[in-house]
Amino acid sequence: MTNYKVWGIHMGVHVSDRPIEGGYIAIGWPELGDLGAIETTRDAFKKRLALAYPNKKPGAIPVDAGTLFKFAHELKAGDIVVYPSKGDRMVNIGRLKGKLRHDVGDRDEYPNKHDVEWLGHFPRDEFSQSALNEIGSFISLFRVQRHAAEFLGKIGVNPEQGVQDRAPQLADQSEEITDDETATGAAGALAETSARDFVIRRLTKQLSGHEFEFFIAHLMECMGYKARVTPKSGDGGVDVVAHMDPLGFQPPIVKVQCKITTGKTQRPEVDQLLGTLGDGEYGLFINLGSFARGAIELERNRAKLRLLGGDQVVDLIFEHYAKLSPQYRSLLPLKQIFVPDSGPLDR
What we know:
By secondary structure, the protein is of the alpha/beta class.
């Protein structure tokens, strides 16, 4: 029976899709240089980190040093890595291929890397919320323990096969003790992420594609537009038409295409919407996932086009929630709470 060690990793949203396209995972703290050149002890990593980042809070040094040590010396070829990418709401699962390498001058300031063979890319809503919460850890690198079998199952590994070291090691437990401010900020970030997952899961599970079009039309009305849903057939890729004047004669007129999908929308679908636009008309493509690179590049070069993915839709729902009809507030039962805004946790 094969045993698998499963790791989770976070990288900043600024890395975009480069780790996926380039086949690697990486870690920050560029002032440390080559992690492989540091003496192979946790104390050596703590000392180097304190010297390189003198303003770092003392309580954070053991956590960060432990993360760096594990990335440099505990990740092994054949281990499984789970990477929830922030920009596209996907969970990427792969197998580590080689040894640690140091990429001098990395554009993202993530110079220490491990090569990865990506085995699958899955929308977040294909996983249980408890599994998503586990990989929502605020630590950059961590062991996936409780839901390792769920992630292995997505890449075709029999969940009955062994998972190495199911019980957390004491060293890992002690390293996760950090200062109160960081821990509180992490709890707030997890609460927000869970709320976003909840909203998208409810929309995809409770609404049909045509019902989603009515929801988007209503949301646009909450934003101050007049909006109407087009007939179910023969819309030419346009699901909702929105405008600011009561009758819809005055430009700008916004033509909206809605896809109740949590995957990546490709460029040809966006091109279809662009082909419907006339003078004084703008295109808005909405989904609950993300967009492929070709579609994003198209948006950058077309002033009349906007793309809204899942996170942007949720932002609008949060902003205009009080104006939603009772029907949709019942669909999305939310309560406003205040959580600490500690800023980005990315290294």
